[in-house]
Design brief:
The chain is mostly helical. The chain has one helix and no strands.
Length: about 60
Amino acid sequence: MSLGSPQKHKTRLGVLVMLAALVLAAFLGASAGLIWEKSGWFSDEVEDEIVTREQPGG
């Protein structure tokens, strides 16, 4: 009488897929960070307004 098959079912971890996803995420994150830095959006520096001549009132 057999008690079952001696083969065990192993779940594949997908290590190569996880590694590829990690490398892709790091590349996209670094690219987005560089674009954000170069764009100057939301910079904390206040731009100075230069007044050359005042308009006469009235």
